[in-house]
Amino acid sequence: MDKFVKELLTEDVLVETAKRYGIGKEKVYFVGGFENFIFGFEANDKSFIVRISHSSHRGLD
């Protein structure tokens, strides 16, 4: 994982991810990533993957 991106992976990111999907943070697990954060979690007997990109990797378009 890119060092800059890795430094951005904080507990706050995990907490906010869980909050937005209405689950406890203990259910969210880090899958991997290079320029993104890839998280997984299970809810309602289904598995989900969430990709979070830092704003520095987005264009103005």
Describe this structure in words.
The chain is of the alpha+beta class and 61 residues long. It has a domain at 1-33. Helix content is 26%, strand content 33%. It has helices at residues 3-8, 11-20; strands spanning 29-32, 36-43, 46-53. It has a three-stranded antiparallel beta sheet, with no helix packed on it. Strand 2 (36-43) and strand 3 (46-53) form a beta hairpin. The protein is globular. The model has no long low-confidence stretch (mean pLDDT 81).
Question: Could you give a short description of this structure?
Answer:
The protein has two helices and three strands.
* Lateral strand order in the biggest sheet: 1-2-3
* Rg on CA atoms, Å: 12 Å
Mean pLDDT: 81
Question: Main β-sheet, in a few words?
Answer: 3 strands, antiparallel
Envelope shape: globular
H/E element order: HHEEE
What portion of residues is helical? Answer: 25-40%
Distance between the termini: 26 Å
Q: What count of helical segments does DSSP give? A: 2
Unreliable spans: none
Question: Structural class given helices, strands, pairing?
Answer: alpha+beta
Question: In terms of topology, how is this protein built?
Answer:
Blueprint: H1 3-8, H2 11-20, E1 29-32, E2 36-43, E3 46-53
Antiparallel strand pairs: 1-2, 2-3
Question: Which descriptors apply to this entry?
Answer:
61 residues; alpha+beta; three-stranded antiparallel beta sheet; 26% helix; globular
